[in-house]
Amino acid sequence: MKRSIALIAAALCGAASLSACAQQGGALRAVSSPDAPKAIGPYSQAVRAGNVLYLAGQIPIHPKTGELMKDAPIEAQTRLVLDNLKAVLAADGMTMANVVSTTVYMKDLNDFAKMNEVYGTYFTGVTPARATVQVARLPRDVAVEIGAIAVKP
Predict the structure, then answer these.
(1) Which of 43, 48, 49 is nearest to 19 (CA)?
(2) Signal peptide position in this chain (predicted)?
(3) Cα 128 to Cα 138: distance, rounded to the nearest angstrom
(4) What pLDDT does 54 receive?
(5) At CB < 8 A and 24+ separation, what contacts does 4-7 make?
(6) pTM, whole model, 2 decimals?
(7) Euclidean distance between CA atoms 45 and 61, whole angstroms
(8) What is the pLDDT of residue 40?
(9) To 5 degrees, how large is the angle CA 22–CA 50–CA 6?
(10) What is the architecture of the domain spanning 27-149?
């Protein structure tokens, strides 16, 4: 319970620090990992603002080969997406235990149970808050994309 209160307080402070960082014109830092796919456009894999790390959505691209797994089963796509998020977290000295919120975008919510089964193996203890939505289309026509917010208390 104390850990969850500390994480919530840290997240709230992090939101305030993002505003303060933006007003002061500094302290924002891009975070990237060679163990996650390179950004496919004008964005960062993650941005650190104070003690909060905002992670861009990851799709199932193998970081070493660049292979897109859009035809793989939802379980394999989810596993690769979460592994990619773990790699970006590690680049900033964090783990999945630091994640306080995720947003899951799915092409088909009929696959939710299968995605959720894999997702659940990546989080222990206090699980992050989560929003899950079905979308008409995802980048490169994959089945799942997941973004996250993490806090280093």
Answers:
(1) 49
(2) 1-22
(3) 23
(4) 98
(5) 4/126, 6/153, 7/100, 7/126, 7/151, 7/153
(6) 0.83
(7) 13
(8) 82
(9) 130
(10) 2-Layer Sandwich (3.30)
d(CA 120, CA 123): 6
- Summary mean pLDDT of the chain: 88
Structure confidence at residue 153 (pLDDT): 86
In whole angstroms, give the CA distance from residue 63 to residue 67: 8
91 DSSP assignment: H
Structure-derived torsion over alpha carbons of residues 53, 139, 69, 116, reported in degrees to the nearest 10: 60
What is the pLDDT confidence band of residue 26, given thresholds at 50, 70 and 90? low
Helical residues (DSSP H) of the chain, grouped into ranges: 2-24, 74-91, 112-120
Q: Check whether 105 has a pLDDT greater than 70.
A: yes
- Contact by Cβ (8 Å): 96, 123: yes
Tokens for 51? Answer: 């003690």
3-state secondary structure of 84: helix
Reading the block at residue 135, the tokens are: 């979308």
Structure tokens at 133: 């939505």
d(CA 108, CA 31) in angstroms, rounded, equals 31
Q: Where are the domains of the chain?
A: 27-149
